[in-house]
Amino acid sequence: YTGNGSDIRNTATVSALTADPNRDNNTSRAAGPPGGTVKKPTADLEVGKTTP
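Given the sequence above, the corresponding structure tokens read:
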């Protein structure tokens, strides 16, 4: 992933076999990561190649 997190969404939906008197509260959407964005990934490993 190379984005800044602004496109991340978390949606939870529930359902049941029994009748639900209030179907409007069966879905919840979170706004994404705290603060709205994430830092770009960093590597803790470097690979190099040398030739004779």
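Residues 1-33 form one domain. Try to locate this feature in the token string yourself.
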